[in-house]
Amino acid sequence: MRLYSLSVLYKGVSKVHLLKAAYDVSTFNFFQRSSVQEFMTFTSQLIAERSALGSRASVKEQEYLCHVYVRNDGLAGVVIADNEYPQRVCFTLLDKVLDEFSRQVSKMDWPSGSPATISYSALDGYLSKYQVWTP
């Protein structure tokens, strides 16, 4: 049971853009890592774009399960995990991350923010803390 990606995005009026993300691609071949990370970024944006405000969903993409939560204020979170990772834990993690992110990062920065401009460093810690979940 593994988590591969944890992303925070903003769903604006016209499009979705990435605010911050953390990835664990260490289980992939060295030469595949950058393309796997690009795939995860693209998939996260696509799923958030296709999800309605105030919704939660789990979408199967290849051998991964993508869990998305889009809040009514447009802030969205996506976790990409393997098929065995518990859905309930993913949504608990997304709730926690989005609440903390919205407290630490001004809502005014969301529409124009990018991974380079947003100052929020907790994603890597959450990704490693929740990495291998054991019941």
TrEMBL record:
InterPro entries documented for this protein: Longin-like_dom_sf, Longin_dom
Localisation per UniProt entry: Endomembrane system
| SMART domains in alphabetical order | Longin
Q: Name one GO biological process term.
A: protein transport
Signal peptide interval: none
Asked whether the keyword Lipoprotein is assigned, the reply is yes
Q: What is the protein name for this chain?
A: YKT6B protein
Chain's gene name: Ykt6b
